[in-house]
């Protein structure tokens, strides 16, 4: 079925210029980049504003290692703004992501280097400023935009404070954490964050990226950004299993996690192995009462980009079948990162029922804040 | 659920007309005294006085304790109570004969020669362990083959050990752990690859090692289920490193065997590396070919622990994607997640010819076993 | 069906076992708190000698960090991959029951009930007749 036919089937009838999906899709991962600390300074209090200026913090971009802004994968050529770095310009995001794809909403993730600082309070001040900046200068200006709450993961109490502060603004739909930090994410140290997230019905988004407290893999420090980028999927596997083994889903049965920007083709063998091992070592973590794959299929979601299986039925369709759930994948473009050309975000070998779930139903089911008031909690066909 | 139930009265491989090569057997010592004939007095004293000094919290134990004593099958304890895998007679009867093993490749793990922070001590241990494999095991049973343990963090010494052992054809590979100070693709290890290639030896990388890094990129996991699984991610990382660093451009004849990491995860890794190479080419201009090509040509896998998808058809797909020729059967005897040759490959939809390749043909050809 | 005497009463201590072969079948007879049960000595997972495994209780928990050992001595852990089987029934128990709910706010119910895992070890009827333990095959 052609994309036009899919759109016509699933929407009320797109008006001209409504983009590829005519509003019948939600983009669960686009990027906003902080161009410089100068934009955050208006949102810092007196102490931090003076610190930022007198200490020259404002001379640093706070880029996360491993995500060089000009590397091709992070900067699709036709998605660069005329001036400034990719992801810094609202107009570009509006035209190239929201308008072009015709998405109903896009969830913006601002991966900011404050999450890598060692000074917890400084991190918290900067994260707060980022969230305020995103709200005032992005969300206020574009009604289709939503955002993830950037938190100072270094300190769970300060993170909870930030979540409580932002939760009232329903345009914040998720809590954002990098895939690699100081501890495996299931650890009880982080539970206050999960308690708050569950209470506010905010999924926790785990996004590719690291604060590099450790070598990016158990093999040590490699030479290239390419290696680190490939390693993010391995990190996802470690973290997913940590959340299960530590009992995060037993303790917070309402919580959801969304893993962003490391594909999904690695899921099936990971799920098989998790079950296989669990059956033999169950007694060490007796609160894990169901096979891990079952828990993951219920509580965990994964964004579509980068699509990491060959785009043909023999591979992609088989992999998705092996995942064993049609509810796990969430549509994303990962704008402005470069994983596909043109508007080819969505592989076209997939059956229409699955396509509709990926584009719209699964995101709506995952993010309750995206559902308009009065709609049922879970969208069913 | 379509489950992998062992059929009653399953025929042994011999009864099925299949021969078995076991590419992962763990020999052990009843006591460390077994090493002393092969250790200079100075190092015997060092062992007794200072002992193991490695990059982890406990000097002689695992900080993630396993679920069974000595990581072993509960039914693999020799009659005299010594540790599983330490009694050659018992191993011969309990495993080699019982399971129809035609050739078995030894992977010694104890004593951590390659992990020692004291490199000279490590070198002495590696040499002693190599002597010990021949004296205690290969001499005892002609079916057994050894692996040359080396101090990979001291490449010059490792090269000397490889050169010294290569003439003894009972050694079929160089053995290193995947968890090292730097990822194994890095140039500091290249002299070892040069020596392996010069001596026409493959390199076996068996799960383990104490390289001083956390088991994940986000720290140490709490539980054994995580630690056990994390060895898969280590294998993913080392393939990535060796491919991306250009090891196989430099050493086109180098062959690697990944032991005890499984293999079902390999296709997804190959696709991921190919996809991202499209965008990262500018960073790694020394790579002339797709990562998956290097992987296909230079990496093989032992089968244990065999994965158990709910649907056997999925295992067939995985094996098709990996390639029958790249798989070599292993049991991991005497460890707890042992794969039995009667059952392990029954649910993959393999033809008899394919099963025979994986159970013995591939290993015989690869390692030159006869 | 034939009846076979496998042991004298008192020969197998509480918590103990005896491995025997009857008509070519390898069987383990277990004494669990004075009652006798017999299992085929082959694990339905991957063919291990199940009856050489470790007799254990069942580890359970209502929340992370809490550990309870229930029904001590009533379970058998396979000597290979560690799967847990109830000696009485041969049923594998890798999936303790929890009332499943789709609603996101409910918490796990305390006091879990056990439900069946996907595998069953073959069992044999055992009776005690006067001074002997007898199996029906």
Q: What would you note in describing this structure?
A:
The complex is a heterotrimer of chains A (381), B (370) and C (137). Chain A has a single domain (23-370), classed as Alpha-Beta Barrel (TIM Barrel), CATH 3.20.20. Helix content of chain A is 37%, strand content 11%. Chain A has 12 helices and 8 strands. Chain A has helices at 3-10, 46-54, 90-101, 120-137, 156-167, 191-199, 225-245, 248-251, 267-281, 292-299, 313-323, 352-366; strands at 26-31, 105-109, 145-150, 172-180, 204-210, 257-260, 300-303, 329-330. Chain A has an 8-stranded parallel beta sheet. The longest helix of chain A is centred in the middle third of the chain and has 21 residues, at 225-245. The radius of gyration of chain A is 20 Å and the shape is globular. Residues 1-16 and 374-381 of chain A have low confidence and may be disordered. Chain B has 370 residues and is of the alpha/beta class. Chain B has a single domain (28-367), classed as TIM Barrel (Alpha-Beta Barrel). Chain B has 11 helices and 8 strands. An 8-stranded parallel beta sheet of chain B has the order 1-2-3-4-5-6-7-8. The model of chain C is unreliable at 95-115 (pLDDT under 50). Chain C has 137 residues and is mainly β. Helices cover 0% and strands 47% of the residues of chain C. In chain C, a hairpin with a 2-residue loop joins β3 and β4. A 6-stranded antiparallel beta sheet of chain C has the order 1-11-10-4-3-2, with no helix packed on it. Chain C has a 3-stranded antiparallel beta sheet with strand order 5-6-7, with no helix packed on it. Chain C has one domain: Rieske Iron-sulfur Protein (3-layer Sandwich). Chain C contains no helices and 11 strands. The chains are: A alpha/beta (381), B alpha/beta (370), C mainly beta (137). At the A-B interface, α7, α9 and α11 of A face α6, α8 and α10 of B.
């Amino acid at each position: 079925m052609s994309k036009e036919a899919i759109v016509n089937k699933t929407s009320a009838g797109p008006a001209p210029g409504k983009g590829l999906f005519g509003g019948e899709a939600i983009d669960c991962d686009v990027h906003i980049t902080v161009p410089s600390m100068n934009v955050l300074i208006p949102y810092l209090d007196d102490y931090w504003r003076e610190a930022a200026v007198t200490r020259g913090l404002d001379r640093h971009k706070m880029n996360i290692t491993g995500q060089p802004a000009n590397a091709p994968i992070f900067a699709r050529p036709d998605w660069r703004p005329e001036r400034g770095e990719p992801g810094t310009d609202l107009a570009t995001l509006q035209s190239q992501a929201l308008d072009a794809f015709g998405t109903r909403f896009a969830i913006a993730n601002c991966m900011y280097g404050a999450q890598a600082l060692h000074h917890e309070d400084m991190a918290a001040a900067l994260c707060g400023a980022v969230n305020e900046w995103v709200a005032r200068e992005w969300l206020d200006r574009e009604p289709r935009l939503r955002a993830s709450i950037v938190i100072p993961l270094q300190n769970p109490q300060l993170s909870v404070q930030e979540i409580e502060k932002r939760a009232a603004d329903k345009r914040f739909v998720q809590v954002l954490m990098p895939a690699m930090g100081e501890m495996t994410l299931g650890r009880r140290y982080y539970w206050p964050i999960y308690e708050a997230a569950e209470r506010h019905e905010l999924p926790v988004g785990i996004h590719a990226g690291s604060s590099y407290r450790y070598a990016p893999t158990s093999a040590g420090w490699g030479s290239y950004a390419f290696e680190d980028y490939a390693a993010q999927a391995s990190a996802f596997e470690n973290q997913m299993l940590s959340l299960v083994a530590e009992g995060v889903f037993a303790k917070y049965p309402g919580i959801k996690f969304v893993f962003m920007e490391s594909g999904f083709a690695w899921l099936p063998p990971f799920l098989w192995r998790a079950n296989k091992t669990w059956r033999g070592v169950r007694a060490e973590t007796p609160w894990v009462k169901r096979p891990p794959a079952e828990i993951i299929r219920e509580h965990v979601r994964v964004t579509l980009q980068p699509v990491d299986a060959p785009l043909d039925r023999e591979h992609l369709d088989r992999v998705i079948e092996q995942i064993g759930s049609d509810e796990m994948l969430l549509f994303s473009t990962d704008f402005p990162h470069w994983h596909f050309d043109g508007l080819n975000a969505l592989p076209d070998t997939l059956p229409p029922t699955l396509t509709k779930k990926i584009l719209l139903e699964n995101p709506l089911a995952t993010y309750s804040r995206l559902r308009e008031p009065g709609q049922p909690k879970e969208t069913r066909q | 659920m379509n489950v992998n139930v062992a059929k009653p009265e399953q025929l042994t491989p011999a009864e099925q007309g299949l021969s078995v090569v076991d590419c992962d057997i763990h020999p052990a010592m009843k006591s460390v005294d077994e090493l002393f004939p092969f250790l200079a007095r100075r190092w015997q004293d060092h062992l007794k006085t200072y002992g193991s000094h490695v990059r982890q919290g406990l000097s002689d134990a695992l900080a993630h304790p396993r679920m069974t004593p000595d990581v072993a099958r509960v039914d693999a304890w020799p009659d005299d109570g010594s540790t599983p895998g330490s009694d050659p007679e018992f191993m011969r009867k309990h495993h080699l004969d019982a399971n129809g093993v035609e050739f078995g490749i030894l992977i010694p793990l104890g004593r951590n020669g390659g992990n020692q922070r004291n490199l000279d001590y490590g070198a002495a241990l590696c040499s002693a362990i190599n002597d010990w494999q021949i004296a205690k095991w290969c001499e005892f049973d002609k079916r057994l083959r050894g692996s040359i343990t080396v101090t990979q963090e001291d490449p010059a010494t490792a090269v000397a050990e490889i050169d010294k052992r290569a003439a003894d054809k009972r050694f079929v590979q160089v053995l290193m752990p995947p968890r090292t100070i730097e990822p194994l693709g890095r140039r500091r290890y290249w002299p070892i690859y040069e020596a392996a290639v010069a001596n026409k030896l493959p390199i076996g990388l068996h799960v383990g090692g104490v390289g001083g890094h956390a088991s994940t990129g986000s720290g140490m996991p709490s539980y054994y289920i995580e630690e056990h699984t994390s060895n898969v991610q280590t294998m993913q990382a080392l393939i990535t490193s060796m491919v991306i660093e250009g090891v196989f451009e430099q050493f086109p004849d180098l062959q690697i065997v990944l032991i005890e990491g499984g293999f079902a995860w390999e296709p997804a890794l190959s696709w991921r590396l190919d996809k991202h190479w499209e965008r990262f080419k500018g960073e790694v201009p020394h790579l002339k070919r797709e990562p998956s090509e290097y992987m296909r040509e230079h990496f093989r896998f032992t089968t244990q622990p065999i994965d158990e998808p709910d649907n056997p058809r999925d295992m067939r797909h995985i094996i098709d994607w990996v390639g029958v020729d790249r798989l070599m059967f292993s049991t991991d005897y005497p460890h707890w997640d042992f794969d039995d040759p009667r059952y392990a490959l029954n649910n993959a939809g393999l033809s008899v010819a394919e099963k025979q390749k994986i159970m013995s043909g591939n290993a015989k050809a690869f390692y030159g076993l006869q | 069906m034939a009846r076979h005497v496998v042991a004298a009463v008192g020969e197998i201590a509480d918590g103990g076992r005896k491995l025997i072969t009857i008509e070519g079948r390898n069987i383990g007879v277990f004494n669990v708190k004075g009652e006798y049960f017999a299992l085929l000595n082959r694990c339905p997972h991957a063919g291990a000698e199940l009856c050489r495994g470790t007799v254990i209780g069942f580890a359970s928990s209502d929340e992370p960090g809490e550990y309870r050992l229930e029904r001590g001595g009533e379970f058998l852990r396979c000597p290979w991959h560690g799967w847990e089987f109830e000696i009485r029934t041969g049923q594998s128990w890798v999936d303790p029951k929890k009332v499943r709910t789709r609603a996101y706010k409910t918490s796990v119910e305390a006091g879990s009930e056990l439900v069946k895992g996907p595998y069953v070890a073959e069992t044999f009827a055992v009776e005690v007749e006067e001074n002997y333990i007898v199996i029906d095959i």
